[in-house]
DNA sequence: TCTTGTTGTAATGTCAATCATTACAATGCT
DNA sequence: AGCATTGTAATGATTGACATTACAACAAGA
């Protein structure tokens, strides 16, 4: 299985807030337009990001703002916020290995630390990338677009 | 989403082959007993492992053997064999970001290298763990069981 | 205070993947 | 030939993802 597109959507949302926030009111409809994803899905993600304290969403009036400097928000923060992985466990284990088999009743002992190492490697890399890195590249690509505005 | 239990099942299967292969004929029914998973599912996984050249399965007569020394089979080999991740892409991207939005039409450029880094970190760690490592721990736990055979 | 634009959320539906299960032809020993 | 086993198709239950409709709650401006 793949990690839910909620993750890439969430990052997309942050880029939009940063790029357009000063010029436009960034609503769920606005974001739905940019991502081409249903506004209700966007609101669900916004609600998760809000729950993690990463953004603030204005009820009634609408609009979204980021609560922290971008270099203080990592991919791991976002990944946790949008709950890409059930119970924080990357690997799905077969539920009931046989207690009658020596291998079956020890398979968790044998594998858990190794699976944890793999999961930690993923999480560590996620934690090494911040939205400031993303912003930097975003600005680079948007600038190049302005230099060659009609290139395609 | 989580990585399919096919992965942990496949490792479990290897441990069984190594532990019991000299004493028993390791059939899909035998493995179904140890894993507590339907034999047809086991056969599907065996077929994928066979397709990757990691094991051989005897038609008709039944039984499974490993084709290589265990230190030459990594978790990454198994992970690839059982196709836990579609198209090899760990992150599911939202399909059609808006071409009318500067962010929408650049989001792939902006994110792809970062997502690739994360995926590579996962794969590198998977590749650093071999079935020989698993065998070593398996023997340790099984030995401890024999020292305290009725412990629980 | 009424209107307007928006958020939050429930309800429903479609689709794809996982895993279980039944069934059976094909296979290769004995 | 008989037998245990593999390979595979078909069907079903369950779950998560994402889309969509609907509407109450909300905040601000007219």
Account of the 3D structure:
2 copies of one chain form a homodimer. The first copy, chain A, has 152 residues and is mainly α. Chain A has a domain at 6-86 and 130-147: Arc Repressor Mutant, subunit A. Chain A is 53% helix and 4% strand. Chain A contains 6 helices and 2 strands, in the order αααββααα. In chain A, strands 1-2 form a two-stranded antiparallel sheet. The model of chain A has no long low-confidence stretch (mean pLDDT 94). Chains A and B meet through helix 1, helix 2, helix 5 and helix 6 of A and helix 1, helix 2, helix 5 and helix 6 of B. The structure holds a DNA duplex (30 and 30 nucleotides).
Derived structural class of chain A: mainly alpha
Please name the fourth-level CATH homologous superfamily of one domain in chain A. Winged helix-like DNA-binding domain superfamily/Winged helix DNA-binding domain
Which CATH architecture of one domain in chain A would you pick?
Answer: Orthogonal Bundle
Quickly name the level 1 CATH class of one domain in chain A: Mainly Alpha
Question: Topology, please?
Answer:
The structure is a homodimer of 152-residue chains.
Chain A: H1 6-20, H2 28-35, H3 39-51, E1 55-57, E2 64-66, H4 75-81, H5 107-127, H6 131-147
Antiparallel strand pairs in A: 1-2
Helix pairs in contact in A: 1-6, 2-3, 4-5
Chain A binds a DNA duplex (30 and 30 nucleotides) through residues 1, 4-6, 25, 27-29, 37-38, 40-41, 43-44, 46-47, 57-63, 86, 92.
């Amino acid at each position: 299985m793949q990690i839910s597109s909620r993750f890439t959507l969430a990052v997309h949302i942050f880029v939009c807030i940063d790029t357009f926030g000063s010029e436009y009111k960034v609503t769920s409809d606005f974001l739905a337009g940019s991502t081409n994803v249903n506004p209700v899905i966007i609101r669900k993600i916004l609600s998760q990001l809000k729950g993690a304290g990463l953004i603030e969403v204005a009820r009634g009036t609408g609009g979204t703002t980021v609560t922290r400097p971008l270099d203080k928000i990592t991919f791991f923060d976002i990944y946790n916020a949008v709950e890409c992985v059930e119970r924080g466990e990357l690997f799905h284990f077969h539920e009931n290995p046989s207690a009658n088999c020596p291998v079956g009743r020890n398979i968790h002992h044998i594998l858990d630390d190794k699976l944890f190492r793999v999961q930690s490697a993923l999480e560590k890399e996620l934690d090494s990338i911040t939205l400031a890195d993303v912003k930097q590249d975003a600005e680079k690509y948007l600038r190049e677009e302005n230099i060659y505005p009609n290139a395609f």
